[in-house]
Request: fold
Amino acid sequence: MSTIRIQNVNKFYGALQVLKNVDLAIGSGEFTVLLGPSGCGKSTLLSAIAGLEEIQEGGIELGGRDVTHVEPAKRDIAMVFQSYALYPTMTVAGNMSFGLRVNRTPKAEIDQRVNWAARLLQIENLLDRKPSQLSGGQRQRVAIGRALVRKTPVYLFDEPLSNLDAKLRTEMRVEIKRLHQTLGATMIYVTHDQIEAMTLATHIALMRAGVVEQFGHPEDLYQRPASLFVAGFIGSPSMNFLPGTLAPNGAGVGLELPGLGGGQQAVDVGSYAFAAPAKAGEITVGLRPEDIELVNDGPALEGKTLFVEPMGADSLAWFDVAGHRVSVRLKADDGKRVGETARLAVPTEKLSLFDPNTENRV
Amino acid sequence: MTVAVDQVAVTSAPKPRGFQITPGRIGLYAFLIISALFFLIPLLIVFNTSLKPMDEIRAGDIFDLPIDPSFAAWAEAWTSACTGRNCEGIRVGFWNSVKILVPSVIFSILIAAINGYALAQWRFKGSELILGALMLGAFIPYQVILYPMVRILSTVGLYGSLPGIIVVHIIFGLPVLTLIFRNFYSGIPIELIKAARIDGAGFFRIFFSIMLPMSTNILIVALILQVTGIWNDYLLGLIFAGRENLPMTVQLNNIVGSVTGERTFNVDMAATMLTALPPLIVYFLSGRYFVRGITAGAVKG
Ligand SMILES: Nc1ncnc2c1ncn2[C@@H]1O[C@H](COP(=O)(O)OP(=O)(O)OP(=O)(O)O)[C@@H](O)[C@H]1O
Ligand SMILES: [Mg+2]
Reply:
């Protein structure tokens, strides 16, 4: 019912193209995060969905209805802005009820919805205040409350938490997740914070320079990144990249890596899910820090220890492998025991392979 | 205008930090005091003279204080001073000015605010052109437009009538006021309007429910500019208002100018004071907001 279909949308500001062939199908009740670096077009895409920005090509459907040329007010959406955009001369209650008053909702219904949203967001005691008398977190709640009272099937959020401090951000993140579960509405959420994206999303659309690089479940983006960009953007610390060489042979596929020791030239990656049959040649290998294990024997990369960063629950050890920096996530105790050199086992099940020329996953 | 000048000058002078007395500061204060006196002394003389009876004026110096201050001249100026043939006092002009002022001020400010809001927050085809035209309008001297204006108003049958002079004041006020409002409204974040559009509000709903309530300071600036400007206007009133609706300034000139027998300085001065009083009162009541609004506009503009 409240599905969202974005079809081949192109958007230009003069000669500058800010959305390039964006094509997304979002299911009803899903929480989709638009993620990407600053300036990649996330807000523009959200504004296009809201109808605040014209698109030059393509179409947008909300709940099966073509809304490409429909006014924002008639799209049945609610939106939360990064800057809150609370009406400064109205009280909190006035802010929350404005949309309902414009639409001539009966007074009793307005009161009931405002009270419901205020209770949900725990701002009941703030209803008579002006926005200038609120803290950042409180303003944020009011902004969310203003969207909630509309009871629309689709909610749009543009970086709603980016102005909050770290602690408040974590709290609000949990509340937004809870809201999504309670309301069951379709939500689109813009952020450039990948933690927010990973924790909230049922789907992530990772954007770069106006292009959606990958659209899928968070685990997909994390474990099977479609391109070097996605691999490097998601995960902190970032995925390790090593140049290797693929050599398919009769029994499997050999992967030659620099610094491979233990009397071996290559590891076998025959179990890797190649999109197309493996071709011999240069390849970029991506390894997540937590997928690498330190081992005593067997085929492994020989690394010189650079330093170990304790991070509380775990530690991050950095090694020099044949001139390439490789990070490994270790348990805090193991971090303390790292010697001057270490042997890094290659997780043949969990690595990602990219074509160094196209930068796409193979 | 006199009081406005020193009010702005005095309040916007840097506040002294502690008691540092520097030559620069002494010079600054000396300059401010002298310029204040420069504008105040004539006002004091006018006021002083209006309180004296004629024989005292004839006998004494203009700086002598009245021996027995009385508002008799004020009463005469108000009710029975003569402007040519009729001797009904300056009150006729006062009420004419009020009738011109109130609608002119209300409509010029309302229209300018809506224009400024449209120009600042809604991009539409030709908005740049309109802005350019407004700039031109704001700087073109009145005199250039007077004759075309007379012709246009005669054609539509408004020349020499109350609606005629009101329309003229509205039109002449619009360029500057629109620019002031446009500047003010461009300082307001566009997200506010986006949020309201998503909430379902249209152009006018957004203006009246959201923009206008935020505009108190700038409204007061516009109010002062318009009240004083229109009240003090002489030329437009003389040309466009018609004999029945001559504003107070024109009536004042007629009273001062029509001499039958001895010149009654005290009545003339009282009539002058009466004419100057409304803008003075507006300044005293809202000069504070005026400075605040001007500076708010300056920082954000
Ligand atoms: N009104 C405009 N006119 C011209 N270019 C614009 C306009 N608005 C945005 N852009 C450009 O469009 C691109 C996308 O902007 P957008 O605001 O969508 O980025 P974003 O992904 O939301 O970034 P951020 O994370 O910084 O908010 C940017 O390169 C920006 O410079
Ligand atoms: Mg943005």
In short: Chain A has nine helices and 21 strands.
